[in-house]
Structures are given as C-alpha cells and as structure tokens.
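Reviewers asked in the last cycle whether our approach scales beyond single polypeptides. To address this, we selected a multi-component target totalling 759 residues and predicted its structure end to end. The input consisted of the following lines:
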Amino acid sequence: MNRPTSIKLPALGIDVGAKPLRTRGRSGSIVKVEQVGEGSIEEVLDRSAYSNINADWVNAKGAWLIHVVLICIGKLIIDTVPGMTQQISWTLVNLFYLALSYLMFHWVTGIPFHNDLHGGAYDDLTLWEQIDDGAQYTPAKKWLFILPITLFLASTHYTNYNPWLFSVNISALVLVLIPKLPQLHRRRVRLVHDDLSGMATPTTPGFPSGASTPSSLRDITEAHFR
Amino acid sequence: MTMMSQSVDAFVEGLSSFLNSIPGSAVLVRYVKSSHQNDPGRTVLELLLVAFAIFTLLQSRTRADRSGKHFIQFEEKEIDELVDEWKPEPLAEPLNDVEASDLAAVPIIIGQTGPKPTLARQPSKIIANLASYNFTGLAGKEVIKERAIETLRKYGLGSCGPPGFYGTLDVHMQLERDIADFLGTEAAIIYSQGFSTISSVIPAFCKRGDIIVADRGVNFAIQKGIQISRSSVRWFDHNDLKSLEDVLDSVEKERKKRRAPLTRRFIITEGIFEKDGAMIDLPKLIDIKYRKKYRLILDESISFGTVGRTGRGLTELYNVPAAKVDMLIGSMANGLCAGGGFCAGSQNVIAHQQINGPSFVFSASMPALLAVSASEGIDILRSTPSILTKLQQNVRTARSLLDELDCISIPSHSASPIIHLHIRKPAAGLLHPGSPSLGGGHSLKPSNPTSILPREASKWDWDIETEERALQQVVEEALKRGVMITRAKRLRGQEMVEARPSIKLALTSELSTDEVKKAIKVVAQALKDVLRK
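The resulting structure, written as structure tokens, was:
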C-alpha cells in the first residue's frame, strides 16, 4: 500500500507528573454529583495486574441462587415472629433485602481481600462499580437488577398493600435501583454544604491556591463527565 | 354505526375464544386479575417496572472500564491499512551522530582504575582521575583486594537468590550490623544495587493516599520511587526550607478543609544532591520534621562515606543523632567503592523492608566479596579519619581555584566532594534549577506545589544540545592534557524535569594537594579555551 494512512493515532498520554486537580467551582445547589476514580493509566495498570476476587464472586457458581435462598430463609424467619401479618412480613423482607444489598453493593468502597495486590486502586469504588471491570449490562448486573424488581412484584401480588406500605416499598425500590443505573457509574451524589467535598479516601488534594493555580484546572467542565 | 359495533363485538368474541383455547390462559387471566386488585394506579406502576426490567434485560453489554479510554475503535479497513504499512523497527537502532560521537569519546581504562589510570588511547598516562567516584581512595586498596579474593575463594561469586530465599550470607548480616553500628542506628538493610535502593524504600512505605513532599531537585531514582508509590506528591523549591514549610502548611490546611483522615506523610530529600552538589541544612530540616510531624526519608547516596569526621555522612557533620532520620539511605557503591546500597533506621523500619521492599524481595543479593569489601571499607574509614581530612582539603583547594573562573557557575556546596560546573551565561541573574532560591525569591509568588517545575521554569533558556557539545569539548581538551573529567550523564527524555548540562568533578583523597592544583588548573584552562570562543 503506497497511499499514506489518514488515521491519526492519538498520543498515549502517560502523565508522569502531577495528577489533575479536581477543585470544584462554587455551586449553589444542595445536591452534587461527583466523579470518582480518575481512571489514569496508573490506576488502570494497578487494577488489571491481578484478578479482583472481591468482585469476581458474583459470576461464580451459586452466587445468583444464593439471593433467592436467602430471601426465602429470611421470609420464613420473619413469618415465625408472632403477630406477623402478610403485609408487614413482605414489607420487611423487601426492605431488608434492599437495605442489605444497598449496603453491600453501593455503600462500602474498597476491597477487603487482597488489598495490597491492587495498591489501593479500588479504594474509591463500590462493589457494583468493580463487577466485570465496570462493564455495564453484564449478566451478573442484569440479574442483580431484575431481582429486587421481581421481589417487589411478587410481594405486591401476594398481599394487598395499603397505600402507605405500597409507597414505602416502591420508593425504597426506586432508591436502590438508581445507583445501579449505568449513568451513575463512578458518580457519587453528595449533599453539599460549605464547599466541602468530604471524600472518604484522600486522593489528589485540590489546591485553591488562587493566583498560582492555572485556571484551566480550576473548573470541572462537561468534558470530565464523558 | 351499529354494523361497526357489531363487527367489533364479533371480532372481540372471536379473539377471546381463541385466547381461551390456549392452554394455561385461565391461569394467566386469574393471575392478572388478582394482581390488579381493582387498583389501576398500582397496576400502571407495576407495568412500568416490568417494562423497565425488560428494557434492561435487552440491553447489550458495554465495554469494561479497563479498555475504555485508552482503546481506539478502528474499522477493519483501517486495521488492514495499518498492518500493511507497518515496518518493524530494528532491534538496535543505529546511533545518530551525537550518540556515536559520545560513544567514541568514552575513555577505555587498561587494568585497574584509580587516581592515575592508564588509558587505551592517547594520552596513555593520566595525571588525575576526577571522573570516578573514588572519594576516599578505597578503590584498589590492597587490603580490600586481598580480603575480597579470600572471600571469593570461600563463597564463590554469585549469591544465587534474593535475600529472603537462600540468598543471605553471614557476610551480608555482618555488613548490616557494621553499617548500623557505624551510623549509630538500630539496624540496617542491604540492597544489591544502589539505584534500586531508594526506589524500593519509597514504595515500601508510601502507598496510594499518602502524602510525599519532595524536593524539586531530587535524582532520577527518587523520582521513579515516587512514581511507583502512587502517593500524592507535592514539590518544594530546591534546597529551600522556607518553601518546604509553606508547602507543609498548605498540605495540612487542605487536609483539614477536606476533613480527610490523617495518612502517612513523608519528606523526601537528599543529603548532597546528585544533580548539583547542594547540601541541605539537616538540623533545621529535622526541626521542621518534628514540628509538622512528618517522616524523613534522607538519601545520602553522595554524602555517606564522604562528609563528616569519619565519613558517616551528614549526621556526623552536623552532629545530629542518626536515629532522628526515619529512613537513612546510603550507597556503598559511591561511598565505599563496593556495591549496592543500604537503608538504616529503627528495627521496625528494617523489618518492614525485609518483607515489603521490592528490590530486597525480588532481586538477587549482592556477591559476598562486595559485602566484605564494604565492611573493610567501613573499618578503614573508622580507623583513619585523616582520609576525610585530606579529601576535604582537596575539595577546598579545587573550589578556591574554580571559584575564580567567570565563565562557569558552581551550584555545589563548598564542602561537597562532587562539583558541578554550569556554563555561565553572559547575562547575569538568571536562575537555573540547581540554585536555591535566594532571599529575593520569597517576595515572588510561590511555585505551584503540584508541579515539579518551579515558577522560574519559564525563564530557563539554556539550550541542552549546545551546552552538552561545548562541555564535551572541554572534557576532550582536558583529556588531551592528561586530566580525566566527565560530563554529568543524564537520561534525556526520561526524567521529570531536564537537568541543566554540567561537568561533574569527583574529588578524591588519593591525589596530593599539588596534583589537585595542577589538575584543576588544566580543567580551568580547558574551560577558558573552549568557552571563550
């Protein structure tokens, strides 16, 4: 082939120096959505060096069935409590499942096992974001998506909720479904007051050094969210 | 109208009878009825949920994060084009002109190196070797040679493994004890290569999330160690303790603002900087460290074995107990003319590195004869402090002669055994990276701590190529007249900030004062001849 290629290969920017600043500009809103996990080349390397057993177990044998088993056991135990009506029992099962799965998948960040193999690269990510290396709509994620919905539909089928309990259940379900959406991958919703960012792990400190900070680094633009 | 409604009725009847004939339809109908429970609002919400669930199920899988940003999606045609156009690069690129001339200019020594080596090319006899690191003349000492040969006969050459896996010999442990005893610390640990010592100690202690405050003029090995450690790094101006305090304050302020938990914090600097020979003020640094509660990692690769009454380094020079430095790194390759490096500190610091020091765990330990040479070197230094006095005298002599020249500027400390010579520009007042910021610097705006380049970096205007060529001419001129000197060799394109080209003189105690005077006069003459042109 003699004709020159018109494809431009972008230079792989291995930024050896300072990590980008992430000072937030002033904002008047109460709720903020922040991006975590910068995805720099070093973080990518640290994540891919070893397989992450803390997130791979959701694809293992029996990891899907265990949800159903635990829900059934939970329902049986709750039913044995004297004075339990079907309404309260199903509500409790629903809420406990949602609460525990939210805690496990969307609240706790970092990895409990083999932490030193990854050098802290997963410290900012919840289990949901670690599953399948952050790919969306994988089988495991689809199952974990469908399960709370199915549980909710089963519970409304088998009982006759009064409007309060129904609204409690459905709002809990919607709240737990929101962080599972791919649009919220690696984003955190924070209630902001007084300009604090309050992240759990100290990453790159933002330096509002005033005149010496180059202004291109001061504001987060839409480009950062793409 | 009635005809239309009649036909619609008939259609609906037909549809329902057809549906009823499907087996299991009754179950479905019953299910829907009981789910509906006469509440249409509820049913709508549930139907929306079901629709959303089905929508989710039908989505296809997206690509993982790992390959996301750095993966370029090409089409088949483009891939084929790229593959066709690809030409493999040669395994070894042919040298360009500069590299070829550099290689040709490297002097070849016949036999043993020393203060007056014999060269393969003209001139064969050299009157002074000011290029090799032989500060206290331990290279080629007969005593050390005999002990090394004895050790070679006893242990063989290689150590056959990392220290943790059958690679530790009794001579290694003896050397560790000797170093700890010599410096006055609790314990010491040996690494088999001087470069990888500091770049293993840093990642052993500093992890992602920790804070490192490092000097802007640290050497390449420290830069690599910091990069490996993945810590957040802030830079302070070269050899400027006021700037250090400012950066420490700003780090603390920022941490308070974010209400982040307290993590480990380190100050990393060198005793005598390899890049330009500047020396730090150790007592003041230790005072700052205790006040701000940081740990100090001090790289004494150049200053161990060369400063102080018996060569113990900066701690002896400033009369500071070595236990006050948390991790004291030194080089036996530079200071003791043996090989490898060490880290001295408390028992915990050393025990931690035995498991977590990357080079200690994964690299082979040093040969026994080098360990024995280092131990002998320490004995010699301990027992003959006159060597150090001689070295300091030679340094003073050399500096007094070199300071008179106006074509060069010297960023090195007056007691530093390595002397860097920069070409002095005719225009005065331009700072280069080696110089500590003067008193006037405090009135300027402080440099951005997140960037390794200081604020004056925009004013740097030296041309690396031109200066390297000029300095190479100086080196060759001096070599013609019998004095072996060298440029400071750098990995261009690899360091975080490019160092200014310089000539690096390494003084030695083996030359007499007259010989040093003669050699430095030759160097000065060569400088004048080349740079005046």
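Chain B touches chain A through 59 residues (CB under 8 Å). We regard this as preliminary and will revisit it once experimental data from Aim 1 are available.
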